[in-house]
Amino acid sequence: MSERVLRIGLPILVLALVVALWEAVVRLNHIPPYVLPAPGLVVATLYADGTLLMHSLWVTLVTTFEGFALAAVGGIGLAILFSQSRVIEYSLYPYAVTLQVTPVVAIAPLLLIYLPQHLAVLACAWIVAFFPVLANTTLGLTSVDHNLIALFELYRASRWQLLWNLRLPAALPQMLAGLRIAGGLSLIGAVVAEIAAGSAGAGSGLAYRIAESGYRLNIPRMFAALLLLAVAGIVIYFVLAALSHLALRRWHESAVRREL
Amino acid sequence: MTEQMAHSSSSVSNAIVSLRNVGKTFERGTVALDNFNLSVGDGEFVSLLGPSGCGKSTALRIVAGLSAPTAGAVEWADATHAERIGFVFQEPTLMPWANVAANVRLPLKLTHAEAAQADAAVAQALQRVGLADFTSAYPRELSGGMKMRASIARALVTEPQLLLMDEPFAALDEITRFKLNNDLLTLWQMLKRTVIFVTHSVFESVYLSQRIVVMTPRPGRVFADIAIPAPYPRDEAFRTSVEYAALCRQVSEALAQAMAEGAA
Prior knowledge:
The complex is a heterodimer.
Chain A: H1 3-28, H2 39-48, H3 50-84, H4 86-101, H5 104-114, H6 117-142, H7 146-154, H8 159-198, H9 206-215, H10 219-248
Chain B: E1 15-25, E2 31-41, E3 45-49, H1 56-64, E4 71-76, H2 79-82, E5 85-88, H3 100-110, H4 115-129, H5 144-156, E6 162-166, H6 174-191, E7 194-199, H7 202-208, E8 211-216, E9 221-227, H8 236-239, H9 242-263
Parallel strand pairs in B: 3-7, 3-8, 5-6, 6-7
Antiparallel strand pairs in B: 1-2, 1-4, 8-9
Helix pairs in contact in B: 3-4, 3-5, 4-5, 7-9
């Protein structure tokens, strides 16, 4: 069997086995759905509550996307600023790190006090997602081939030319790696904030649905919402990986197939 | 000390650039160059020869304006030449995200050249180094020799009067190096530009140059200034000639003395 078939086929086989086992265990032991719903029931709930869950998914995805976009703009922008001025870098970098290492779960309730709920959720998504973009882009911008910098100096390139024609393209692989991490993290940030907001009694995102279903012991719906979140995360990851591959496929070793 | 001790370099009549008593001490105290004097005539092919760490690359970077001397001065006969220098690094130093044509075009882009003129100049430079068929190839798709050709095309694209080359062929295999040596000489004779060529290879310097400046290590000084009187065009027949062997021996001896002095 070819490598490709195995790579796609094996995970599917494992999934099928686990689902079948799960279904069997629930049925044979007559486990009630409020303890553990069978996979069939989860899918049925997904279908029955489709409109509600899809609406919630949309809300969460919009927050995720907005958080991601802000993280991309903020992370790349701040990295460019750092690469241009050492004073700014030294002044702000420690606080960027502080923001990153403080658990967002702990920040969320505070943000919910000061900001309208939508903004608070967005801020959480941004806080979690922007740091990998910042750190990776900074690394990329500062690790440019010294001889290429010398070449640009030789032709009296302006600061802007050096940034636009050399530092940014050179940093692209690291920048994209940062964005790939940020995609998943902004979903996590959005979910964490929604959970925190959910306890405050408002919200309509998927994470809020999970919390709400938990209070109501609607376990099948919890599973259905969780399933949607997982699928959303996977889709985000693959979309970003594909974009990264497209951008680098002509020149970067990470995206070029090795010839043997 | 021998009669080869350099006093002759200041006697070049049509100097395009002269380094006068140039010294370079790095921040950590390393003295790379000390009282270094060199004049290069317009259209001349001069090699700087010395062991690694003798400051020859530093001298080249000072000529290019990439590094400032801590003593002495660089004098130009025509200041416009100082602003139009071609530099070839030891590595090809190509931008991996840009194809060959875009890499060669870079100097024109940075100096805001007009698009139509730039197109023509890029095509001509690629033609000269034999890469006309590889304009849309990316650096990673090229062999080491072809990358270096692209690098040379980029250095030539602004039509510089002075071409500085920092051990450009050191990383290439011998067959490729010989081929590029020949092509470089052909280009030099055709374009009549000035070349300062840094190398640690006695054989390469004798084959290419009209004049070889042998340097002492730490600090870098001119130890000997040896003329290579063999006529051009030079080809494989020259490479295997008795005359070439004798010149190589002479230069090797000077280099050995320079290193002995540096070690003393």
